[in-house]
Amino acid sequence: MLFGSFFLWAVVLFAASRKRDCREQTVYPAGTASMTIVTVMAGLAFWAVFAFWLHRLLIGVSPLGAMG
After folding, report:
1. Is the pLDDT of residue 66 over 80?
2. 56 C-beta neighbours (distance < 10 Å), count
3. How many angstroms separate the Cα of 19 from the Cα of each of 6, 27, 30?
4. How is residue 68 annotated by DSSP?
5. Contact assessment for residue 64 and residue 51, using Cβ atoms and an 8 Å cutoff
6. Of 13, 21, 28, which is closest to residue 5 (Cα–Cα)?
7. C-alpha distances in angstroms, 2 versus 7, 13, 22, 55, 62?
8. Where are the domains of the chain?
9. pTM of the full structure
């Protein structure tokens, strides 16, 4: 139920966004490679902090087994 509702929400939101963008002729500026790299590095850093430290602290179980 939970993931099904997330999926349904995403599909409806995607369709509404596409309809809005077609109606308004929205043009988005192209992204830059440097900002893409910054985003990927930030995501990896947040994942590592959560996987190695915060998950055990907040949830009580290490997702990496004995490694973390």
Report:
1. no
2. 15
3. 20, 14, 20
4. -
5. yes
6. 13
7. 9, 17, 30, 21, 24
8. 2-59
9. 0.55
Average pLDDT, the chain: 89
Q: Which two tokens stand for residue 46?
A: 């947040």
Q: Which residues contact 26 (CB under 8 A, 6 or more apart)?
A: 20
Tokens of 23: 């109606």
What 3 state SS string does 2-65 have? HHHHHHHHHHHHHHHHHHHHHHHCCCCCCCCHHHHHHHHHHHHHHHHHHHHHHHHHHHCCCCCC
pLDDT at position 67:
63
> 66 vs 27, 48, 49, 54, 59, CA distance in Å?
49, 15, 16, 15, 15
